[in-house]
Amino acid sequence: MNVPRIVGFLILITTLMIGIGSNLASMIDPQSLILVIGSILGMLLLGKHNLGGMVSAVFSDSADETAVREAIEGYKMGRYYSMAAATVALGLGSIVVLRNLSDPGSIGPGLAIALLSTLYALLLGFVLFLGLQSGLEKRLPEPGPVDERLVPAALLALVFCTVMTVAVFGVLTASFTTG
Amino acid sequence: MRFIGLILVFVSLAVAAGSNLSSMIDLVSLIMTLIGTIGALLFAGASIPSMLKAFVSADLEEEVKQQAIRGWKLAAGFSLALGASATFIGLVILLTNMDDLAAIGPGFAIANLTSIYALIIAFVISLPIYKSLERNT
User: What is the pTM for the complete model shown?
Assistant: First the structure.
């Protein structure tokens, strides 16, 4: 980790905070955090990735090439697992929402939880893991090309959340017209 | 030629927006996607100088070109991911402030405009640039 990368990370956090503004408290949901982080860590452990090595490769500049390659593979798989976690979390969240459809007051908070877990998974997988992976790849003698599936996967995430926006407005309109 | 293309894209977008142009510009959404993408690129260790060099000049050293392809690809991925994240942030702001009409507007603006900005950064700016760089290798 060198100075420009830390500055970049701080810029990233600051811009997110500007967008969140005074709504920070509603952005933190322990249940979704446990669901997302726990399932990603669990899937990484199931895949026999060396979690300690992944963390230490980022912070120590003396890590040898095989350790760095192993860590890169771990972060890459972490990105895939985060998509799986997001999908599962969204499914769980929507079931909670749909079960409480009769009570319009609980729809808003329920949907917020369903959305928050997807948000955490996206930020973890496509921003944190991708950034760490790319930073590690720079230390290899031959970095190799960026994953061809990166842009299509990110587009999928954006299309997915646009569909979610439409769905949210559908549910809201329904709850306003019936209630 | 690249500058003409860039200007043409933005002029045609502005023409399509017409008199609603001012409602298409939201500073917070722009900060979240554009500055956020730049921050993420710095975090990923992408070389922003070589990305800009590849944008303005045609003849490049092989190493700079590879760095630029890498950087613009990462820019596309990061902007889409940040756009999706920001859309969710906007939706959560909207949903948790349902009883306060004044807060719905900003949440709604973040939710919709960030995805548009992310698409513009990724597919209108980054994609043509890195495809043209790849074609020349």
Answer: 0.89
